């Protein structure tokens, strides 16, 4: 039933002003409309990414957003590093990690957190 619709990530944050600085200045997302009632939407490719103030921010321990960046992986990782983003490392069978970049065969993967602990993932797929 829902397979015909685009899905969009919605992320809880504790402080909308701090989240806006991260999503706009660090990740380079442009806001869509004005933030109202503790909510701000952004355009991310063909979908909207929404952040909203919530007391439950930072409680998800799994990946919240995946960014498939394809052959621009190295440039995206370098740009994020230049903006001060620190990459997470995870111990997973069959995957090697070097300088925050995980490798599984030809695939390269990197994870980072926003200021509220929401986990983002960029991949070379």
In short, what is this structure?
By secondary structure, this protein is α+β, with helices and mostly antiparallel strands.
**Sheet of most strands:** 6 strands, mixed
Strand fraction band? 35-45%
What is the average of the pLDDT values? 96
Q: What is the rounded distance between the termini?
A: 27 Å
Approximate shape: globular
Return residue spans where pLDDT drops below 50 for at least 5 consecutive residues. none
Helix/strand order, N-terminal first = EHEEEEHEEEEE
- Specify Rg, calculated over alpha carbons: 15 Å
The number of distinct structural domains comes to 1
Structure report:
This protein has 125 residues and is of the alpha+beta class. The chain has a single domain, classed as 2,3-Dihydroxybiphenyl 1,2-Dioxygenase, domain 1 (Roll). 17% of the residues lie in helices and 40% in strands. The chain contains two helices and ten strands; from the N terminus they run E-H-E-E-E-E-H-E-E-E-E-E. The chain has helices spanning 16-26, 73-82; strands at residues 10-13, 31-36, 39-44, 47-53, 63-68, 87-88, 96-98, 101-104, 107-113, 119-123. Strands 5, 6, 7, 8, 9 and 10 form a six-stranded mixed sheet that branches. Strands 1-4-3-2 form a four-stranded mixed sheet, with helices on one face. Strand 9 and strand 10 (119-123) form a beta hairpin. The two termini are 27 Å apart. The model has no long low-confidence stretch (mean pLDDT 96). Residues 4-125 form the VOC domain. This is Glyoxalase. InterPro entries: Glyas_Bleomycin-R_OHBP_Dase (IPR029068), Glyas_Fos-R_dOase_dom (IPR004360), VOC_core (IPR037523). Pfam families: Glyoxalase.
């Amino acid at each position: 039933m829902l397979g015909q619709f685009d899905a969009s990530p919605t992320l809880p944050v504790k402080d909308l002003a701090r989240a806006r600085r991260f999503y706009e200045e660090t990740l380079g997302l442009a806001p869509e409309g004005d933030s109202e009632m503790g909510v701000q939407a952004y355009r991310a490719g063909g979908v909207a990414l929404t952040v909203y103030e919530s007391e439950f921010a930072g409680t998800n321990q799994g990946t919240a957003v995946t960014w498939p960046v394809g052959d621009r992986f190295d440039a995206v990782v370098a740009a994020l590093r230049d903006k001060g983003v620190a990459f997470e490392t995870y111990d997973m069978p069959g995957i090697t990690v070097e300088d925050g970049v995980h490798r599984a065969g030809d695939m390269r993967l990197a994870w980072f957190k926003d200021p509220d602990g929401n986990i983002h993932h960029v991949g070379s797929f």
